[in-house]
Every structure is written in structure tokens, then in C-alpha cells.
Amino acid sequence: MNIIKLEEMLKQFFNEDIGDGDLSSEFIFSAEQQGSFSFYAKEDGIFCGALIIEHGFHLLDRTMNITMHKKDGEPVIAGDVLAVIEGPLQKLLMGERVILNLVQRMSAIATAANLAVSKTKGTGAKICDTRKTIPGLRMLDKYAVRTGGAYNHRSGLYDAIMLKDNHIAFVGSITKAVQAARAKIGHTVKIEVEIETKAQLDEAIEAGADIIMFDNRTPEEIRAWLPTVPAHIATEASGGITLENLREYAASGIQWISLGAITHSVKAFDISALVQTKGAHFLVNY
């Protein structure tokens, strides 16, 4: 992960939340008062977000003492302590909401990705994400996908060419679209073509696509059409794929399965913070 970019993101997020100051914490606690947070899981899953905790709290105060009890990618069960953070109570309270929001989302994505990967065990299929991420959080979302054991699709519009139905409709044909793109790209850029019919598949092969996406096709259609695809062309399935039918798609012979749901439909991973200060403690639920 790009740490420079991460810290710039965190600064932006903190500025949005803190504004000119945290009135609640600054009016109640002194700058000298010390305390600690213990973050712990309230459900089973995969932890992701150690860098958020470490860099986030240290941006607010470099004297923070942070002890991570879990590493990114490690499984957790309800009740496991994830991290303990000690330092100025004002800064602890100032940073906890932003940091927990991010850690909860990233852990949810890592957990969803890990579950999807488990459904493909014993097949040759690999799970990857899509561009269906929260704007501004793509680097974190895709990091969480990798943490869960899945793979990243293209990072954005800039690092690979994907010719979808609208591109093809505007230019006139798959062949024309591939030829136009191929004439202008360098040798390191891949061209992926989305197809929905057997005729489109044949045209994409003939046009020289590097990757062919079977869009909203059934496992039976994919299994029947795959033998016509040369070995040098990568194959991907997307659209209409759920955890319930994922195994059928993985067993079809497809190489890649892209799932938007592992980033766009996750529910925040349940994490709580146990706050301690000078002999007292209280529980904050999130």
C-alpha cells in the first residue's frame, strides 16, 4: 500500500470529522489526561486495517503507544483483542470514529473475499474484485480484497482496457473496438472484451482479445463455450454470481470470477472499543 497516499487520505478524513476541533473531548478532558482503547472483534472473520490504526493514531499524536494483537489477514473470533492504543485521551477520542469506520469496512471486505475464495477450493478459478468500490476508498477496498486472499481486477480506467457493451455499440463492432485500441496502446496494456453471445465470443477471439469476460452467462453456457477459447486468452465470468451459485461457476472451467459484491455490498464488521482511563472503563459499541 502507498503509505504516502494513505496518510494524505487519513488527513482528509480527519479534517472532515474534526474540523476546527473536537468540542466534546477538548471541553471534558485535559490535554494531559491519558487513557487507552482496546479494540476487539464482536464476530468471526478476517482482520484488516492494522495500517489504519497505526498511521491514523500516530498522525494525531506521535507519542501514542500502539500494540497490535492481530495482523492483516489473520482470522479472528468474537472476543479477540485486535489492538490496544494508549495515549492522550483527547486524541484517542478524536480519532476513534474515523479509524474504526475504515477498519470495520476493510475487515468486512477481507472477510467477504475470504468466504468467496473458500467456495472455489479445489477448482482452478480465482476470485477478483471490480471497480464497484466507494469513491475515495478504492486503494483501501482493493487492499482488503487482497488481504482476504482474493485478487484485484484493474485499479481504474487507466491501467487496462475493458471494452464493454456500450463501447462496442458506439464503435460498431468488437473487431473495430479491439483494432482501434490495439493501434494505440503499448505492449504492457491488456485488452479485455465483454461478450454475451457465442457469436461475440468468436469475434473477440478472432479480433485478438487478451481477456474475454463472459457477462451474465450461465455456468452451462460457459462450460460449453470455453473449449473454443485459445489457451493464451484469459477467461473471466461476471454478472449474476452469488455465494449460492459461485461453486457452479468455479467448476465450469473459468479462470477468473469477478465479484462486485465483495466491495459494494458488505456490512461493516462488528468491532467495539473498551475505553480505560485512571481506573475507570466504559464500553463503546459500534
Structure, explained:
This protein is α/β, with parallel strands linked by helices and 286 residues long. The chain folds into two domains: 3-116 and 267-285, Quinolinate phosphoribosyl transferase, N-terminal domain (Aldehyde Oxidoreductase, domain 3); 122-264, TIM Barrel (Alpha-Beta Barrel), CATH 3.20.20. It is built from eleven helices and 13 strands. Strands 6-11-10-9-8-7 form a six-stranded parallel beta sheet.
Task: Write a brief caption for the model.
The chain has 286 residues and is of the alpha/beta class.
* Number of structural units classed as domains: 2
Could you tell me the mean pLDDT?
Answer: 94
Q: Sketch the topology as an H/E string, one letter per element.
A: HHEEHEEEHEHEHHEHEHEHEHEE
Number of strands: 13
Q: Name the shape in a single word.
A: elongated
User: What Rg do the Cα atoms give?
Assistant: 23 Å
CATH superfamily placement of the largest domain: Aldolase class I
Stretches where pLDDT is under 50 for at least 5 consecutive residues are: 279-286
Order the strands across the largest sheet as they lie in space. Answer: 6-11-10-9-8-7
Count up the helices: 11
CATH class term of the largest domain = Alpha Beta
Decide which structural class fits the backbone: alpha/beta
Q: Give helix % range.
A: 40-55%
Question: What is the CATH topology descriptor of the largest domain?
Answer: TIM Barrel
**Major sheet attributes:** 6 strands, parallel
Strand content: 15-25%
The name of the CATH architecture of the largest domain is Alpha-Beta Barrel
